[in-house]
Write a structure and sequence with these properties.
Layout: H1 2-14, H2 47-53, E1 56-73, E2 77-91, H3 92-96, E3 101-112, H4 116-121, E4 135-147, E5 151-158, H5 180-185, E6 197-204, E7 210-218, H6 229-232, E8 245-255, E9 266-285, E10 300-318, E11 328-338, E12 345-356, E13 366-376, H7 378-391, E14 400-413, E15 416-426, E16 444-456
Length: about 450
Amino acid sequence: MLRRWLVALGGVALSAGSALAADEWKDAVPPSSIATSLPNGGDPGGIRKWLFDRGLSYSFVLTSELLGDVAGGMRTGAVFQGKLETIVKADLEKMFGLRGLSFFANSFQIHNTGGIRRDHVGGFNTISNIEALPTTRLSELWLEQSFGDTFSIRFGQLAADAEFFISDNSVFLMTSDWPSITAQNLPNGGPAYPLSTPGIRLKFDPNKQLTFLAALFNGDPSGPGPEDPQIKNRYGLNFRVKDPPLLMGEAQYRYNQEKADTGLAGFWRIGFWHHFGDFDSQRFDTNGLSLADPLSNGIARKLRGTSGIYGVVDHQLYRPPGGDKDSGISVFSRAGISAPDRNPVAFYLDGGIVFSGMVPGRPDDKVAATFLYSSISRDAAALDRDMILFTGMPQPIRDYEFNLALAYQAQIVPGWTIQPAFHYVFHPGGNIPDPNSALPAAIKDAAVFAVRSVITY
């Protein structure tokens, strides 16, 4: 199998000079697709172009990774993981004359030999944003009705991380993901990869600089129960609609985004979330006693709702002459806070710097350094101290998880990139006990080497 892959990929690289020149065909494929490097544009029968002309387009994205925990964590070792994403879009106005109506669906075929974060490192900050249990899963499935260029309504099965709380400058990185503050605090991780849930989203664009988003999701993509949420909703077909809802809103401001602009590009976001369900106190029972107290009834106090606010910034520091918004040197950051009494993570911050097209002779390559920091909530840490007080037994006290990562993304041909990376994780899991240690010792800091291949067709 490996030999067949190498032969196929080698053929792709050798055919880079035979890209299809027909300008009318290029809109049928993603902006950067390996199809443009294949004979006849990767569409020898013309079927893809024929479907596109009639309103239907499709694409595939194959992401493959090899990751190895070489030191620390719960145990060292390597894993292979992959995700084949299938994307289908339909312009229903072109197909059936339904003005302003479009359709979207995507699915994942997830395959791996284990998860580097789950099975080896023991952390919760993202190391690889494709890590998930192996399965074939429906992700999003929605209709969108647009009213001119200013307003649209999207409804169906949605993923919040497709539009909310994201940084454009970081999306190519393995660590770019739904932030830990929402993944850890919302029921079953919230509506984000690899899960999604029914919802409705409103979008208002008063001009090219401003966008306002609001969305109401079913608040639990998997439902109650002790099983892993990805097992409870194994194929993405639960379509739950009766759970307490999750409300999200975001305001966006952007400038110098066009190719013809010469100023430094910027994109600012500020948003919030509110979940209307009940949440367990991180420290106290229903009688007001610490859950670590021997007199406690062991039933956590229920607190109504949870909320958070966040901000995101993408900003260009240097724009080379003739460069676009993604060229040169850029920085990014995301930050969020949430109540410490009902959430395990109270504060989140990530950020980084990206050098794009700065390597001589490699205009499409990128170099990046990034970090992720999640602070365990005050009440969760206090419960650990209570446990030591009442039991007299030493144990780690949860505090934070901090990740550093370095990455280089090289374009082999348009639509195919290779990204080697190095990750170092401080306090995996927020300084929790190592389940494989006979002593009450925290999981050791972990070092992970990784390489990612992404092929878009």
